[in-house]
Records
---
Amino acid sequence: MTNTLQSPVKQLTKGYAAPAAGAPLAPFTFERREPNADDVVIEIKFCGICHSDIHQARDEWGGSLFPMVPGHEIAGIVVGLGSSATKFKLGDHVGVGCFVDSCRSCGACDAAVEHYCSKMVGTYNSREHDGTPTYGGYSERIVVKQDYVLRIPDALPLDAAAPLLCAGITLYSPLKHWKAGPGKKVAIVGLGGLGHMGVKYAHALGADVTVLSQSLKKADDAKRLGADHYYATSDPATFTTLAGTFDLILNTVSANLDWNAYLSLLTIDGTMVLLGVPDAPSPPVNAFSLIAGRKSLAGSMIGSIGETQEMLDFSAAHGITCDIEKITIDQVNEAYERVLKSDVRYRFVIDMASLAD
Ligand code: NAP
Ligand code: ZN
Ligand code: ZN
């Protein structure tokens, strides 16, 4: 039995899909399931464009499923509820991030790090446990099990909150895990969608924040976002000036870098965390880059449902949202090209009302 706010839940759903690897995204109509007892039906209002959408739509990581409806930075409104979906009510502001299910019985799920479950179901480019392909947020609605739906606090506007569901949590989680805070020096490498959220959260947590960007173009923005220092990595002097400085480096760059050069910027016991996922094999790391200073090279991927809710509540308490450029759905291919040129300040967000045009 399903309650609906306005009209009955439609199975046919309008969206945009990549029909094949690298092909431009185009209008695509597909079916969403009728809600099961524990499902929430969400009318999608806004969806962010993550660089991971581009990697996957172009099959840069291999194994992509087509047609692909990308989008895992979803913000919308509850318009339908299954009979046992009591965590939410009609009209609630909600979000969906990078995954919509997990096995609920493995070590990762038991430890509340279900984003590391080997049976985690991605919001798109993945399959439900029954084999049905998942389709993401570049669409008018989505049906998701209530345990994988986030509550977006009323203080956060839906458009600028949407990218928190991936870019926000991907930076918040490692900052908390590696204890960024007062007295800690944190560097954010790459001032894109992920990077600009890293600056905001690291600053809000009280750390001393440095941005390492390719050029000086974004220096004024970085200061406005909360950075204390800013350096261009195109200037070799940056690497001598900052040698041995940072407790924590968060690398958000979508391309390969010389990790040895960045590891030299860590202080003793410092950690560099890889967040970006380039499409090419990783560059070699010299043992001396790690042993001289007991340094760590680590990685981190999004965050759990619990931590994502904590991040949204933290964002509301600290007035943190994403800096966005709002676009219509027909501008999505152009937006992809601009992301690839690092020409977005700092996240494109699709206004899903434009699907009706
Ligand atoms: P983005 O908005 O394109 O930002 C990436 C930034 O990296 C750019 O703004 C640019 O910053 C820098 N950059 C790009 N190309 C570079 C190059 N060739 N050399 C040096 N710097 C370069 O992308 P995003 O959405 O933030 O995503 C970044 C990466 O993280 C992607 O690979 C994405 O797939 C991955 N990701 C990982 C997770 C996770 O859970 N670990 C989650 C989401 C995304 P400057 O202009 O400041 O130099
Ligand atoms: Zn993402
Ligand atoms: Zn599991």
---
Amino acid sequence: MRLLVIEDDPDLNRQLATALVDAGYVVDRAFDGEEGHFLGESEPYDAVILDIGLPKMDGISVLEAWRRAGRAMPVLILTARDRWSDKVQGFDAGADDYVAKPFHLEEVLARIRALLRRSAGHAKSELNCGSVDVIQTVRGLGYLLAPPGNAS
Ligand code: CA
């Protein structure tokens, strides 16, 4: 599982990355919106932790740009506790979940686990739909090759 952390506060960025690496994830880090946007657009991440208040390009703009470009990875946004408008804007922009600062690292880890579980569930049901299609196609072929009542 490969994650991206975009947070301009160096201490917070390091704490998040350390906790995620300890939990067994591969973690890339970005410290401003432009760098984060570029990484999220060019690399396949299983989930992203995205701060809203970022230099160069704010988190909402980063998220909107990804969603417009069809990037569908789960995104957990980090918001300031007293900025409820951040949460509304974040969800409107395509966020999957949020954590308000200051947060406990355990809560971030739990929410990331939940996001990854959910996105794995989606991937599985898509696969199931695929096999049904294949079975139907094979039956169709079988019928074409040996139509019933054509023995004589
Ligand atoms: Ca920030």
